[in-house]
Write a structure and sequence with these properties.
311 residues; alpha/beta; Rossmann fold
Length: 311
């Protein structure tokens, strides 16, 4: 997959099949769009191209409410490559760019740099100033320029339409397995392993503190999770706590994971990929460390049994 971050870099795109969107989460609904895009491109012997934006448009248009992101651009690029996209253009989204009209965007970006023979779009996608670039606008635009348009319907499960907003709510409220089902991939993110206070080692449950690399990363609901980390190209299962460690009267949210391995010494300051498989329980305040250790032993036994589902 070729990745462009500036319009003047774009090349070899004439006649491509193209789609546009933020695609936060690249959930199963988004994947339907991408699969239609790539299969159409393959059938017609054309390149498949996807245009997205960084930062997320909401971070510019609604600065007071910083949107938490389901996935980083690195995750998005990686998954798009696996889905078979040939060309990815990441447009820097600025306040000036946000004032481009839909027609200007089509004339001076889409037609000028891509000249697509086909466009695939989601049923609810809008673009351009004041969201005037609706699917209906795009249909009329395409007729004038003899571009084929595919508008992809919503994907629903039990009458629930899959959307990034709905999936954010699921993750924030602890319904992690359901969120992963709707995403079509196990929710997780890239992170860095850093040293913590070392308290877990003293309790015989050494933990690695995890800090998300995406500064606007959507975090799961506080609690204890069965998690899986990719460390140095190896997958290691462990149990993860996200919270404020109330037993020790701390007030800062911390994400820490106890990997089911003998040593953590070689992973500090490394980049890891953390997946949240299942939520085990709420975070609790214990009267003393001994009670906490007893609970951690129970959690570990439960997670070791539960992880067999993922082997």
């Amino acid at each position: 997959m070729k990745i462009f971050t500036q319009l003047d870099q774009v090349a070899d795109c004439d006649g491509c099949i193209l789609t546009i969107g933020s695609f936060d989460g690249l959930h199963r609904g988004h994947q339907d769009i991408v699969k239609t895009l790539t299969s159409t491109a393959t059938a017609k012997g054309k390149k498949s191209a996807l245009i997205t934006f960084d930062p997320h448009p909401r971070h510019i248009l609604d600065k007071d409410k910083k949107l938490s992101l389901i996935m980083s651009m690195k995750q998005k690029s990686s998954l798009l490559e696996k889905l078979g996209i040939d060309i990815l253009l990441v447009i820097p989204f600025t306040n000036d760019f946000s004032h481009r009209t839909a027609e200007d965007f089509m004339d001076n970006i889409i037609m000028k740099y891509f000249s697509p023979s086909g466009i695939v779009i989601g049923y609810d996608h809008h673009f351009g100033y004041k969201r005037e670039g609706s699917p209906e606008f795009l249909q009329q635009y395409a007729i004038k320029r003899e571009i084929n348009i595919d508008i992809i319907n919503a994907v629903a499960d039990h009458k629930v339409i899959l959307s990034s907003t709905h999936i954010r709510d699921l993750i924030s409220n602890g319904f992690i397995r359901r969120a992963s089902f709707e995403l079509g991939w196990v929710y997780g993110f890239y992170a860095k392993v850093v040293h913590g206070a070392g308290r877990g080692k003293g309790l015989q449950f050494p933990t690695a503190n995890i800090v998300a690399l995406e500064k606007n990363q959507l975090m799961p609901k506080t609690g204890v999770y069965l998690a899986r980390g990719r460390v140095n190209d190896n997958f290691i299962v462990g149990m993860c706590n996200f919270g404020m460690r109330p037993t020790f009267n701390e007030r800062e949210l911390v994400l820490e994971i106890n990997f089911f391995t003998s040593s953590l010494d070689d992973i500090y300051n490394h980049e890891v990929y953390i997946e949240f498989l299942e939520r085990i329980r709420d975070e609790k305040k214990f009267d003393n460390p001994d009670q906490l250790v007893k609970q951690l032993q129970q959690d570990r036994d439960y997670c070791l049994e539960l992880k067999k589902k993922y082997e």
